Amino acid sequence: MKNKIVNLVRSDILNLSPYQSAREEYTYNKACFLDANESPYGLYNRYPDPFQNKLKIKISKIKNIGIESIFIGNGSDEPIDMVYRIFCNPRQDKVLIFNPTYGMYSVYAAINGVDIIYQKLNEDFQIDNKSIDILCQDKEIKLIFICNPNNPTGTIIAPTSIEKILNTFNSIVVIDEAYIDFCPEYSWLPKLKRYPNLIIIQTLSKAWGMAGLRIGLAFMSPDILYFFNKIKSPYNISEVNQREATEILKDQCEFQTNIKLIKQETIRVVSETEKLSIVTKVYPTQTNFILVEFKNAQRIYDSLISKQIVVRNRSSQIPNTLRITVGNKKENNTLIQTLKQLDNE
Ligand SMILES: *Cc1c(COP(=O)(O)O)cnc(C)c1O
Question: Residues 176, 290: one domain?
Answer without folding.
Answer: no
